[in-house]
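Regression check, nicotinamide-adenine-dinucleotide case 474:
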Amino acid sequence: MDESLIELEISKTFSLQKSNSIRLRESTSDYRIKQLENLLDWIKTHLDDIRKAIHADFKKPYSEIDISEIFTVTSEIKYVIKNLNDWMEPKKVSRSLALLGTSSYIQYEPKGTSLIIAPWNYPFNLAIGPLVSALAAGCTAIIKPSEMTPHASALIRRMIEELYEPDTVAVFEGEVEISQYLLSKPFDHIFFTGSPNVGKIIMKAAAENLSSVTLELGGKSPAIIDKDVDLLDAASKVIWGKFVNCGQTCIAPDYVLVHQDIQLPFVNALNDEITKMYNPKNKGIEHSNDYARIVNDKHLVRLNSLLSDAISKGAKVEFGGKINVNENFFEPTILTEVSENMDVLNEEIFGPILPIVNYVDIHEAIRFVNSKPKPLALYVFSNNENSINTILNKTSSGGAVTNDCVIHFLHHELPFGGINNSGIGKAHGHHGFLAFSNEKAVLKQRVGLTSSKSLYPPYGFTGKKITSFLLKWF
Ligand code: NAD
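Current build output:
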């Protein structure tokens, strides 16, 4: 479609959603649950379509699609359906003595119109997960999926068109220009998942309309391996967390900090785990159906230059390093002897390269983490509760997991998100519902102290008496 026609279509859809969002303020939990049930039914009856579309984009293995794209969404929908009545219920709050005679509660009203901008790495999960929260909160939504995964984006569009009227949910596919045009509209809430650099652009655009934002961003999530650790267990979990989706996961361990006394056995264990998971029959990782591809050549080139930069500055390749440009294949790669002047230790890697940094004591590892922007996730592998607590208490990250990685994403009751450079606001479950809701403070006056009007001008004796009483006792 011609760009100006798309702009026209966006303006028309935005106006329709604006009007509908006012009607939706009074939408019941039954209505919202029905919308979510329809979504769940569609997903369940189109599992193969979803798998094929996502696989077509970058050969994500079907098992990974099932767990990380489909299950994440269906379990979220079920959890929301189960709890929505309770979340929508106004919450009574107690009052202080100064407001005696009044009653107050928090009313959860939908923010209104919302815009969901999604990335390519989990194209279904990261577009539809936020939609579940938007529908639960009673918002309308326009979704802008990533242009880098055209098959998944087309499937999302088809699903939404089959399920919803455009005044409730609509999809606009396209490049950055479409995103920019959408951002010029005064949405009530913008839910963006993507890189910190684009997150800044989104926040600036949102500021023009004072739209609230949830920014789910990225960064460099460390995995810290203590000396006192179950080495083989830690190695297999780090390898799975790092190389699932070919390293293109926002919460993948970006780099490892390992105690220097165990670096050698740990690296050997990492190498063994890669072989066990991706090359069990010794046919070559390239032939494994369980290993995805890099999303496009632009990212392959970016990753290749990260690797070249590291090697040229003295990094040692302990495993991998092989690339096939015709296939967008990038072998799982482990690097040691890395130093701070290398790009791999400064940029978010977002691909299958794992640099290993060693430390001599836990405080050195903590200093290293704290010298970088706050990460989206932090992983600690240790049998020592003291070391774990020291690390958790002395670092700041959006989320943290001990003796495992990545799986906190699946927990509906944990707020998911980053802090500062890795994100603003939280998603999932109740936290997602709140992100799309306005917590309206409602105070109902009845016969309270303040209704006597003795505190109004002209300020007289009774008013002064009441104020000094309040100052003295409250
Ligand atoms: P990206 O920021 O390049 O793009 C994300 C979306 O923003 C896409 O839909 C894209 O079209 C749009 N976009 C790009 N440039 C834009 C601009 N100038 N103006 C307006 N819109 C623009 O991110 P990506 O490459 O798709 O995804 C990778 C990044 O996302 C990584 O940094 C990763 O860590 C992060 N991420 C975070 C999470 C999370 O939950 N926190 C999840 C997945 C990915």
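Comparison notes: The chain has a mean pLDDT of 96. The first helix runs from residue 3 to 24. No diff flagged against the previous build.
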